[in-house]
């Protein structure tokens, strides 16, 4: 469990630093830069998560004695637990970020979504009502948990196959 906590915490801490860097660089206060912040945050964030899962699963595999299998499901469980811990810590930071550090961020995202909908042909009133409930702290937290769990499962399913290990039997004398 200690390995899951360590690598999950490192992943979420690195993601928090990335968010703060984007914030201080002005990407989270300018509507024109918000889309670029999404791309940067998404790609760098994915690299952070994959790196932390890779290092964490390798560390967990090393904790298992060589005479025991570290099969697909053991590898999947390790990757999924690291991702889940990371998601929980990241959720905490995201709530703090949206409430205390940058309380205008969700409104900025909402306005960007309304503009996209209006450019797609939706009326202003419909766009307003469609986004009204989505961009609060609680709805964003629920969405974060749902999509975080789905993404964690997908990444874990893919990565688990790379870290399996068969048991090494000691030579018979």
In short:
This protein has helices spanning 2-24, 31-63, 72-101, 105-119, 124-132, 137-160.
What this model shows, in words?
This protein is mainly alpha-helical and 173 residues long. It has one domain. 77% of the residues lie in helices and 0% in strands. The chain has 6 helices and no strands. Helix 1 (2-24) packs antiparallel against helix 2 (31-63). The radius of gyration is 20 Å and the shape is elongated.
Keywords for this entry:
173 residues, 6 helices, single chain, mainly alpha
List the helices and strands and how they pair.
Blueprint: H1 2-24, H2 31-63, H3 72-101, H4 105-119, H5 124-132, H6 137-160
Helix content: over 70%
Distance between the termini: 36 Å
Sheet/helix structural class: mainly alpha
Poorly predicted regions are: none
Portion of residues in beta strands equals: under 5%
Radius of gyration: 20 Å
* H/E series: HHHHHH
Number of domains: 1
Q: Tell how many strands the DSSP assignment holds.
A: 0
Name the average pLDDT.
Answer: 90
Q: What gross morphology would you assign?
A: elongated
Largest sheet: none
Total helical segments:
6
């Amino acid at each position: 469990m200690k390995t899951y906590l360590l690598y999950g915490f490192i992943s979420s801490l690195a993601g928090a630093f990335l968010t703060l860097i984007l914030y201080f660089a002005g990407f989270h206060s300018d509507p024109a830069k918000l889309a670029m912040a999404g791309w940067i945050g998404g790609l760098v964030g994915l690299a952070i998560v994959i790196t932390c899962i890779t290092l964490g699963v390798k560390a967990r595999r090393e904790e298992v004695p060589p005479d025991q299998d570290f099969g697909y499901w053991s590898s999947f469980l390790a990757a999924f637990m690291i991702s889940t811990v990371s998601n929980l810590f990241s959720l905490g930071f995201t709530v703090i970020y949206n409430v205390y550090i940058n309380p205008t961020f969700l409104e900025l995202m909402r306005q960007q979504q309304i503009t996209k909908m209006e450019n797609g042909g939706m009326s202003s009133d419909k766009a307003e009502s469609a986004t009204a409930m989505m961009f609060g702290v609680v709805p964003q937290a629920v969405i974060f948990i749902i999509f975080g769990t789905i993404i964690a499962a997908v990444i874990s399913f893919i990565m688990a196959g790379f870290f399996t290990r068969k048991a090494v039997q000691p030579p018979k004398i």
